[in-house]
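Journal club side-thread
Mid-discussion, someone asked how the predicted structure for our own chain would compare to the paper's figures. Pasting it here so we can look after the session.
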Amino acid sequence: MKRLRPTSALLMLLAIDFIWQLISLYLSVGENPSLLALSGDSLEYWHMSDSILDGNLVQKQPFLSAPLYPYFIALLRALGLDIVGVMVVQIVLRSATAWLITACSKKLFDNAWLSFASAASFLLLLEPAYFATRMVNSSLQLLLVAGVVFTFLRFRESQSARRAVGYGGTVGLAILAHPPLLASVPFLAWQALRKSKQRQSGLLVVFSMVLVTATATVHNAQATKDSPGGIEFIPVSAQAGVTFAHGNAPGSNGTYQPLEGVSANRLRQNSDAYEIVKQQTGKEGWQHTSDFYIQQGLDYWASNPSAAVSLFFTKLRWLFAGDNYGDLFFINLEISDDAWPRPATPLNFIKVGWLLPLSLVGLIMLWQRRNTARLPLTLLFLSAAAVVVVFWYSPRYRLPLVPIAAIVTPWAIYSISRSRGFITAMLIAMPILIIEGSSAIDNFDPIDESMAGSFNLKTGLNYMELEQYELAIPRFEYAVAHGQDKAVTHIALAESQVKIGTAFGQQGDISAADLMFNTAIKNYYTALELNPSRDDARQSLVSVLEFMKRNSEANKVKDEGKRIKSQ
């Protein structure tokens, strides 16, 4: 019987993963609302791709997020793909990323089975598998991070002009998909110029890197040339300040915290921040807005140094032990919900945090052995880790370090095991035991009532987006009973009830329609009690009251709205 070769094992694993991901996507479409109902960043990316498809290559505002992804979506949509088609392409990107990770490991460590272990480490992780079938930037980020390592290693082998341009251009694209990597440019440029055998090759790397990145800078200058603040120098994105303030303010716990007056709705968030800064400072400008909120976060650090240090270590813990929390997606709750098929396969069981301690060990070993790839590997790893510990934790913010962890971790284990088998076993087991044990002891990142309520609120909003109001209502009712007794929940519940009531009325079932309308009225009143400033709820309430011929009551609601506005 022939022994299984690493290449054959890799092809089998890639095929199994690819087919299983496609089956999982096929079963989930039409059942799981988080696939097709776009919200938050996903909806913003889709709207931007709409604008690009309409011929607006330069947007009306500077980039306020990683700019490459919406253009990537627009290209796929121009080829005729819909949301599901984009997700299929992202599954292909996932397989390509695994292949690049394999190739990088082989070039670095020259061991075929280690290369297979690196690919397996990546493919068995839960978060990359999940985000491959969501309308987010992650799959493109992962591909380009792995691509930076691959093109660097090829450039190291042969410093031809073609490979220099390929490496520098890939770094530029990676920055457009993962803007925090911009801080690494001086170090990567220094290495390219210092280590190149021919200075021309190093200059080509730097030129390509800067040229591709500068497309965002030029776009932002064009987008702001007619704005009141004039042309602005924004290298990639003007979002950093608001994001920084979200994670560095009184009451911060290392995750997203709302800012006063700034909407949690991604489509309104930056314009709200812009207007607040304009009112408070009398100046306009997107970079000015970002600088204002960066200073706000720095002021918090300066006025509360002990709290800032404590917050740093809390974020560091989130980096290693974050599991259940999600700012937009609640992966574990979604997986455990039996209303739809599992959105990730049972093969995807490894947690990202489990790999990180050994990744750090591996990077340290590379520095000790003076491996020429140590600098780009470390910078790519830290570019994602720093976002968590400086800004705030989100599974998506941590994700770009995964290719580096997958490349380095198996090699670190193998290198230590060659001399100390027992220590290797301890190295593998201890980080997992420490992370999981400490989380269990003090109940860190639990699936608590508030998280379950948030998940059901988001799920209900997704059902609303898909006009499945009958499925949305029980989700909102659950959210109200589990920590989300807020105006936004009651408004969504009322709107769903109005939609169902309207449908009953069209069918001639007047009593059922009236029951829904009256229940909606109660929810609108509750929403206004919780947040009297929600004028949208007041206007909707007036409309329903007038439809129900309760005109005197509607007039009272209008008068109350005028009184509140005049205060």
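Post-session note: The mean pLDDT is 90.
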